[in-house]
Amino acid sequence: MDFQDYVSVDCVIFGYDFERLKVLLLERVMLDHTTQSVIFADKILPGSHVLNNENVEAAARRVLVEFTGIEDIPLHQFKTFGDPDRLNRQERDILWLKNIHQDPNQRVLTVGFYSLVDANKYKLSVTKQQSHPEMFKRNPAWYDIEQIPEEMAYDHKQILLEALAYLREGVKYNPLIFELLPEKFTLGLLQKIYETILNTTFDKRNFRRKLLKMPFIVPLEEKQQKVAHKPAQLYRFDWKLYQQVKRNNHDIML
Q1: What CATH number labels 3-173?
Q2: Exposure string over 157-195, b if 16+ CB within 10 A, otherwise e
Q3: Spatial separation of the C-alpha atoms in residues 26 and 140, rounded to whole Å
Q4: Which of 30, 34, 48, 69 pairs as cysteine with 125 (C-beta 3.0–4.6 A)?
Q5: Which fold does the domain 177-247 belong to in CATH?
Q6: What is the pLDDT of residues 126-148, one digit of tens each?
Q7: Mean pLDDT for the stretch of residues 102-123
Q8: pTM value?
Q9: C-alpha to C-alpha distance for 40 and 29, rounded to whole angstroms
């Protein structure tokens, strides 16, 4: 396969497990080819160079399938990272690149994508055949966003943190969070998700008052069942009403 030497993609996949916000990372490992001892190990975002015959979003989707097993999720392109020295700031990155016969001084632009998914829905796996047995990416796993590893490849920690900022701004204006919700939900669950992702707390009455002004959050004539506490009112998200509000440029900011 022919790759674009100067263009790559990196994917920041956030996962919410209805308790914590997490991010999907791979383990990058370099082994001594003689002793098989670990020369170094760190964390890396799912990413790769773009094939000559694909666009950047197609590349991002291919990368996710190959390195994580995740497919068919919404992807949001948020920024291109192009610092001239983004690949050679750390000695381990230079060593890695030299051993895969890539010039550490070569400039590579990477296009960042992010997504927010239900972390419980996906079984993570690596499907790509590793071409360098002594240097490989493995073990896709969810990491708590409050415990991001210090050692990450290249500028990937910067990419991750900027994606997090885009996510936190995006959930205020776009229905990213509603894609996580069951068909019927309580306002308490919705508030918990917002608070977790935004890393803040809301006054319960003010939060609910603002939500209930949004016509696309529709109350149902149903309440929770089989709960130990007082059953809460159930709601649904109306996508058609949301699109109508969006087209009319109404303020939907949380």
Answers
A1: 3.90.79.10
A2: bebbebbbebbeebbeeebbbbebbeeebbbebbbebbe
A3: 4
A4: 69
A5: Arc Repressor Mutant, subunit A (1.10.10)
A6: 776 554 444 466 889 999 999 99
A7: 94
A8: 0.91
A9: 6
